[in-house]
Amino acid sequence: MKRVLVLSACVVLLFTTLQYGQPLTHEKILYHSEAGVRWTQCVFGPDGVLWVIWVPGNTNAQSGGPIWVLSYDGNTVSMPANLTNISTIKANRPHISVSPKGQILASWGVVGTKSVYMRIRDHKTKTWGEIIPVAEGYGGDEPCAQMDKNGNIHVFFSDESGGQIFVRSRINGVWENVVKLSQGRGKQGSLAVGSDGRAHAVWIEKGASGLYENVYTNRTATTSWYTREGLPGESGASNHPWIAVGPNNKAIVAWQDISHPDLENGSEIRVLELGSTWETVISFMMQHFPRVIVDRHNKIHVACQTGGGDFGSGLRYTNNVKGTWMNPQQLLASMPKVPGLSADPAGNVAATMSSWTTTGNHTGSDIKVWSLNPIKKIPVLEADFTYAPTTGYFPLPVKFTATKAFGVDGKEVGYDWDFGDGGTGSGRIANHTFQTGGTFDVTLTISDDADRSDSLTKSIAINYTPLPAAQFTFSPTTGYPPLPVNFAATEALGADGKEVKYGWDFGDGGTGSGRTTVHTYLTAGTFDVTLTITDNINRTNSLTKSILVLKTNPLVPVGLSATITLSQFWKNPEITFNLFWATNPDNIPEHIEAYAIYMKEDSGDYIRLLTLSPSTLSVSFKFTDMTKKRSFAISSLGYGGTESTWGYFK
Fold first, then answer.
1. Residue 645: closest CA among 586, 603, 602, 578
2. How far apart (Å, rounded) are the C-alpha atoms in residues 258 and 285?
3. Distance between CA atoms of 407 and 415, rounded to whole angstroms?
4. Rounded Cα–Cα distance for residues 98 and 71 (Å)
5. Per-residue pLDDT at 611 exceeds 90
């Protein structure tokens, strides 16, 4: 039992300002070829210009040669261009498609070498690129190339004689390996890509019943091809399935359902929207090669070749734009092979077909087009923007302003920004702050409701001033405490060109600021002095240097003497110790911070009684306790915590 792939349903609104449902009219002969013409396919570009591709030939066995392409903008038909470059090549079964950004993709096969090739027309330069070999030695039948909005390419093709289906993808500019999709004997099919980037493929493969049945799979740019699904809706054998994807990203498959595959005396044309129920849209007759498209309003259009495979009689066309399938329209042609069918971004639909002619003074084939509405060129999307300021020091806030643009429906487009530093934005006006220096490629992408898009990239240079290394000098480089030291940093500029901030750590608990500063060391030791510079975006750089503050070597005072006096010994006895000393001439006065006086009682320890300034040379102590023996000593205290030996008063 076949599995049914269920996709979510979608409500589609009909855009009523266009005249849908009318038959194809506006017939025009685009080109007359002196030779027969086969496999005439077409596609509308995002500007409403129709592109038509074909190969010379009268029958399948006799067809093949250079691949030709022309364009028609509603007024002018371009001269045909030979995409294969040489006239001796035997290419066949070309296909043409358009990417969301406007690139035209032409693909073809060479059955003799089982090879597939393609060329891409750049919508900006309006030139065709070089021939790209897609695959060689696998198969060259019915190639179908599609590109998504990110430039990823998927190419579907087959080896009909070998019964194999292949696909190859180029993701992020790198070709993946060729993937074989068929598991049994397979042939025919096509591929389409939705606006969401998902690729959908359908083909026929011989089932257990011995009949060919539709097989479907899909993938994204980041996944491989999903498990194959058999599609419902085949009462006989399927033939020539074709797939399309609408703006709602739902896949639509059309095929010819053959009641007598051995006789091929006719078929129904059936359509299946994946997840829904199949419908017969063109009743039974001798007909082949259905083509299906979905217009911008998610309405389905189907065309097929009538008559025998090599001896067609024209095409039949139908659509469901009014909610029901209209009676098929018959357009006559002589010996056509495969119709082309395409919809433009504004909703117009066109079909192409060749017709053998012997009228007038010439023979050969006319390439014809019919369309619902007159073909005309529509405004293309062209992204452009300005920005201010155009340069500066980071952090740099920049205002970006896109040129206003409108889609085919007259509504303003969407604006999306990639600022090149990982930041993104949306809206016609966007503000972004560059936090680092460098040159950044800013890309604006505009897109309309018809899934057209265009991008433009401009570079912005953000000035980058490297933060200089912190540097400083100091003077004096050493000395005795108290030691005042002058510190001077080398001038440094930040990212904005302005002078940085200077922060100092003097290593003894003291701090400071400013490019120049003074700090006094009061103690001896080795101190790590650190300068830290900081610019306006909080970049920092530090440098540490050491300074040695020397210890002083104070000497004990000289000329120590003491006198003792007693008073009021008959009433309240009181003893006075008068201590005298002189400055040691060998001391450096600037090194002496104070004198320390010590005393002990009886056999106890000396304890410090007083600390006196270095200008004080005497002191007196009075006691009323006459029972204790007292002794006195003195020392010189140097800056930095040093102390001389003790001198004892006699």
1. 586
2. 10
3. 12
4. 13
5. yes
Contacts of 466 (CB under 8 A, 6+ apart): none
Strand partners, 458: 442
- Give all strands of the β-sheet with 453-463 in edge-to-edge order: 391-393, 453-463, 438-447, 414-418, 424-426
| Nearest-5° Cα angle at 584, 587 to 576 | 135
- For the CA atoms of the chain, what is the radius of gyration? 47
The C-alpha atoms of residue 303 and residue 165 are separated, in whole angstroms, by 24
DSSP state of 381: P
How far apart (Å, rounded) are the C-alpha atoms in residues 90 and 620? 128
Is the sign of the CA dihedral 7, 13, 15, 19 positive or negative?
positive
Q: Which two tokens stand for residue 533?
A: 């510079």
195: tokens are 């606006």
- Distance (Å, whole) CA 362 – CA 366: 11
For 16, left (φ over 0), alpha (ψ -120 to 50), or beta?
alpha
Q: Which of 558, 552, 570, 514 is nearest to 642 (CA)?
A: 552
- Helix and strand numbers (H, E) in the chain are 0, 54
Q: Which two tokens stand for residue 356?
A: 């053998």
Q: Give pLDDT tens digits for 220-255.
A: 999 999 989 999 887 778 899 999 999 899 999 999
Q: How far is CA 131 from CA 86, 134, 248, in A?
A: 12, 9, 33
CA dihedral over 8, 13, 18, 19, signed as positive or negative: positive
End-to-end CA distance of the chain: 125
Running DSSP on this structure, what letter comes out for residue 65?
A: B
Our measurement of the distance from residue 359's CA atom to the centroid of its chain's CA atoms, rounded to an integer in Å, reads: 58
In this structure, are residues 71 and 50 in contact, taking their beta carbons and an 8 Å threshold? yes
**Whole-angstrom distance, CA of residue 287 vs CA of residue 264:** 9
> Contact, 147 vs 105, CB < 8 A?
yes
pTM for this one?
0.68
Element (H, E) at 141: strand 141-147
Which tokens sit at 155? 């190419």
Across the chain, mean pLDDT equals 90
Distances (CA, A) of 494 to 102, 312, 539: 46, 78, 8
d(CA 389, CA 149): 31
**What is the rounded CA–CA span in Å between residue 73 and residue 82?**
19
Type and span of the H or E element at 314: strand 312-319
Strands 453-463, 391-393: pairing is: parallel
DSSP class of residue 421 equals S
Among 201, 448, 279, which Cα is nearest to 347's? 448
Strand ranges (DSSP E) for 395-539? 396-402, 414-418, 424-426, 429-434, 438-447, 453-463, 472-475, 478-479, 483-489, 501-505, 511-513, 516-521, 525-534
Maximum separation of any 2 CA atoms in the chain, in Å: 165
Please name the residues in contact with 222: beta carbons below 8 A apart, sequence gap of 6 or more. none
Q: Under the phi-then-psi rule, with left for phi > 0, alpha for psi from -120 to 50, and beta for the rest, what region is 287?
A: beta
- Taking the C-alpha atoms of residue 96 and residue 128, their distance in angstroms, rounded to an integer, is 13
Residues 450-478 have pLDDT tens digits of 778 888 999 998 877 778 899 999 999 99
Please state, for a pLDDT cut of 70, what percent of the chain lies above it: 96
Query: What would the pLDDT profile of 327-344 be if each residue is shown by its tens digit?
Result: 999 999 988 889 999 999
Residue 377 contacts residue 76 (beta carbons within 8 Å)? no
Q: What are phi and psi of 557, to 5 degrees?
A: -60, 160
